[in-house]
Design a protein that fits this description.
Structural class: alpha+beta
Radius of gyration: 24 Å
Strand content: 25-35%
Helix content: 25-40%
Shape: globular
Number of strands: 15
Distance between the termini: 23 Å
Largest sheet: 5 strands, antiparallel
Mean pLDDT: 92
Length: about 425
């Protein structure tokens, strides 16, 4: 087993599954069990006459179980992995039974077919060029309407903005969807989601409005800017990049630590963000996964996991988002040397450089040395070793977990955010990384 107990628990879909999985990490619950290089399996006696057949693909950390649960992983998969992590001597290395090998082989065949299908896919270049041109015309028309809308807001002032109805924001967001500019639609919705009850909401609102204007104006002048920045504009607006072409590139090979993971639901999709840190290159990467709600993502990473992996970054003036070309999960590494920022002054200088390269960049992770959570002027801050403060995001809900892990002492911390607001996602405690 390459995963620690904490990393296995991080795979659980909810707290109930964690508890049920913990209860099933008991040898008495399992009729049979085994392990090979490729898979882990076991038969768990349930209430029926036949035991549930549970199996785990150890290469991709994927699960299958004959139980009726729709959770991924189910409690049986979690229980089996926990038992193997706690008592590996109970799992004799052996040949996979047919019900396991059939599943593993089918998964391998499915991946091979995906590769073959991508290689065989022919492209009608003329038809593709026409589709691209038609979409660009739609986007340009939508942006022209968006610019009028933004200027109307500026002309009228923002004092009455809190009085706007949800339809005001929704109508423009829908117009951006019709214009095939889904990224701009999301930014408009984000504007409307501003908490107008908060003191100082005006500053954050204007920042987001200016960013929206900057992107729209940038697209109107896209032919006059750097090619990488052109790609950033197209991406944030909603144009996609061919990932098979990316996968054919060389990529960046490193030992990567998964420092954070978050997911959110948008309509029928689940969007998962995985933040990685390269131990040799000192690089950060964001791996996004989009799955239909309720389905299991292709990559199953958990914070604290170490990967020997090759990542390929999307074209960008500030390479950050990436795809995983290949990877192997490796055992936890002790005494890892992480390059940290010394404090908020150094972070401010670094962010100035980032903003000059990509003014409309998204929030990004950083690792900062010796941060302490402090309560000051009715809100929580992160204080560095020089006494400088940076605000913790108002939406952050794990402050007491952070204090419990750190004991209120300075700790090296992974945070995510931008400029004047960050939220902690993990700390180094006794040389081990703990996600929050």
């Amino acid at each position: 087993m390459q995963l620690t107990e904490d990393q296995i628990y991080a795979l659980a879909p909810d707290e109930a599954s964690k508890k049920a999985g913990r209860d099933l990490a008991n040898p008495a619950k399992w009729v049979s069990k085994g392990i090979s290089e490729e898979a882990l399996w076991g038969e768990c006696q349930g209430s029926g006459s036949k035991p549930y057949q549970t199996q785990v693909d150890l290469g991709a950390i994927a699960f299958k179980c004959s139980c009726p649960s729709r959770k991924f992983p189910c409690k049986h998969g979690l229980g089996l992995m926990l038992l193997c992590e706690r008592e590996p001597g109970l799992f004799a290395k052996s040949t996979m039974p047919a019900w396991v090998s059939d599943w593993i082989n089918k998964r391998a065949e499915k991946e091979e077919k995906k590769v073959e299908k991508a290689a065989e896919k022919s492209v009608d270049e003329n038809a593709q060029a026409k589709r691209v041109q038609a979409r660009e015309q739609k986007v340009s028309a939508g942006i022209a309407e968006l610019m009028v809308w933004i200027k109307d807001i500026v002309r009228g002032g923002i004092l009455t903005i809190p009085e706007k109805t949800p339809a005001y924001w929704d109508n423009m967001a829908r117009r951006m969807v019709d214009a095939q500019a889904s990224g701009l639609a999301g930014m408009v919705r984000n504007l409307g989601a501003t908490n107008f009850w908060n003191d100082g909401w005006q500053s954050g609102f204007i920042d987001k409005l200016l960013q929206l204007y900057l992107i729209a104006e940038g697209y109107n002048n896209i032919q006059n800017i750097d090619p990488d920045l052109q790609q950033d504009l197209r991406t944030v607006i909603g144009f996609t990049t061919n990932q098979e072409e990316l996968r054919a590139q060389t990529g960046v090979s490193d030992t990567w630590l998964v420092i954070g993971k978050e997911s959110r639901d948008e309509q029928q999709l689940t969007i998962e963000q995985n933040w990685l840190y390269g131990l040799k290159t000192n690089s950060y990467a964001l791996v996004l996964q989009f799955t239909v709600k309720g389905q299991f993502p292709p990559l199953n990473f958990s914070p604290g996991m170490y990967l020997d992996a090759t990542l390929v970054y999307f074209p960008s003036a500030l390479p950050y988002r990436a795809i995983v070309k290949d990877y192997n999960i490796i055992r936890q590494i002790d005494n890892v040397n992480i390059k940290t920022f010394t404090g908020w002054q150094q972070v401010a200088g670094y962010e100035t450089i980032l903003n000059s390269r990509l003014p409309f960049r998204s929030e990004m992770p950083l690792v900062i040395a010796s941060l302490t959570p402090v309560f000051y002027q009715k809100q929580w801050w992160l204080q560095d070793s020089e006494g400088c403060l940076c605000k913790i995001s108002a939406s952050y809900t794990n402050i007491w977990q952070l204090i419990a892990i750190s004991g209120g002492d300075p700790v090296n911390m992974a945070v995510i955010g931008r400029e004047n607001e960050y939220r902690p996602i993990g700390v180094w405690h006794q040389n081990n990384y703990k996600s929050i």
